[in-house]
Amino acid sequence: MVDATILTAMISYFGWGVYSARVLSATAAVLATWLLNRHWTFRDQASDNKIRESSTYAGIQLLGVVINFSVYGVSIYLSSTLMEYPVLPAAMGSITAMLFNFTASKRYAFTG
Which of 12, 32, 36, 82 is deepest in the core (most CB within 10 A)? Predict the structure, then answer.
């Protein structure tokens, strides 16, 4: 929701391009997911070593962003229709990356 809301606002109301708006929206979404994961999803698995946990989480999220942007970019490149509705490829990228991020975060970041 954070990603889609910011993406739509930046494109529709502020005239940003589909890629620059996506960088901002994805960055905000990563911050939101860290807060949610740390305080709710993996609360019982949160580590006392916050430096290791946060750096591992950041690395996982970086890979997730690469996956997310790849799906987003390929979708827009292959379909002019999807370029007209960028929230759809954003959702496709987010869902794909979410599956990776959740699995990798549970396995590698939140191991306390």
Answer: 82
pLDDT for the residue numbered 18: 92
What are 74-107's pLDDT values in tens digits? 999 999 899 899 999 999 999 999 999 999 999 9
Domain that holds residue 82: 2-109
pTM of the model: 0.70
- The answer to whether the Cα torsion of 33, 34, 40, 45 is positive or negative is positive
Structural domains in the chain (count):
1
Q: Is the Cβ–Cβ distance between 2 and 24 less than 8 Å?
A: no
Sign, CA torsion 21/108/48/95: positive
Q: How far apart are CA 51 and CA 57, in angstroms?
A: 10
d(CA 55, CA 12): 34
Stretch 10-39: mean pLDDT = 90
